[in-house]
Amino acid sequence: MGYARSLLSLKTKLKLQDAIDFLSSGDILAVTRLSILCISVQSLLEVLFELEDKGVTLEVVQQQFISKDTHTLDELLLYLIEFIEDIKIEKRSIAIQNGKRVGRPPKLTSKQVVKAIELKHNQSSKNVATRFGVSRSTLLRHIAKQKEKKSA
Questions:
Q1: Contact of 134 with 108, CB cutoff 8 Å
Q2: What is the pLDDT of residue 28?
Q3: Same domain as 123, residue 58
Q4: Of 11 and 152, more confident
Q5: Which residues of 120-132 are buried (b: 16+ CB within 10 A; e: fewer)?
Q6: Which of 4, 55, 81, 82 is the most interior residue, by most CB within 10 Å?
Q7: Does residue 104 fall inside a structural domain?
Q8: Average pLDDT, integer, range 86-94
Q9: Per-residue confidence (pLDDT) for residue 40, from 0 to 100
Q10: pLDDT (0 to 100) of residue 105
């Protein structure tokens, strides 16, 4: 899937570059959100600098950003934070659509949880958690999830 995504990204970049090449000084490039333009901060900055060099104004409708306007540092940071959050959400939704697990990997595997349940019959939860290198609450949370799976 990585190859297909790379091709998609390349096609998008080429289309964006074609649009930028078509624009001339005094034109306005309007988009709904900054995340429409790029998938990284570096590529966003490259696009912004290229548009500035050509004398093209970028207008971002939903975020009410116009590149020719003067912005405070706080405003610029807010736009950047929103951009990064949009990219995270988009990547997360792509991963979910592709059936990939999203987020941190679990601290314990299913086999470790089963073993922990066995050990818990003879030892305290704290001792079992220490043996697996996790906190007591993490151990108990994993055990509860395992029991939910069995009952479902």
A1: yes
A2: 92
A3: no
A4: 11
A5: beeeeeeebbeeb
A6: 82
A7: no
A8: 84
A9: 86
A10: 83
Dist CA 56 CA 48 (whole Å): 9
Confidence of residue 13 (pLDDT cuts 50, 70, 90): confident
- Residue 47: partners with Cβ closer than 8 Å, 6 or more residues away: 16, 20, 37, 38, 58
Mean pLDDT (the chain) is 85
Are 78 and 129 in a shared domain? no
Within this chain, do residues 87 and 125 fall inside the same structural domain, yes or no? no
CA–CA dist 2, 8 (Å, integer): 10
Distance CA 145, CA 133 (A): 18
Q: What are the DSSP calls for 99-121, one per residue?
A: T---SSPPSS-HHHHHHHHHHHT
Is residue 102 in some structural domain? Answer: no
Q: Which positions ≥6 away from 37 have C-beta within 8 Å?
A: 16, 31, 43, 44, 47
CB atoms within 10 A of CB 73: 7
The pLDDT of residue 26 is above 70: yes
Using the predicted structure, report yes or no on whether residue 90 has a pLDDT greater than 90. no
Residue 105 lies in a domain: no
CATH at 38: 3.40.50
User: Nearest CA to 133 among 111, 96, 107?
Assistant: 107
Is the whole-model pTM more than 0.85? Answer: no
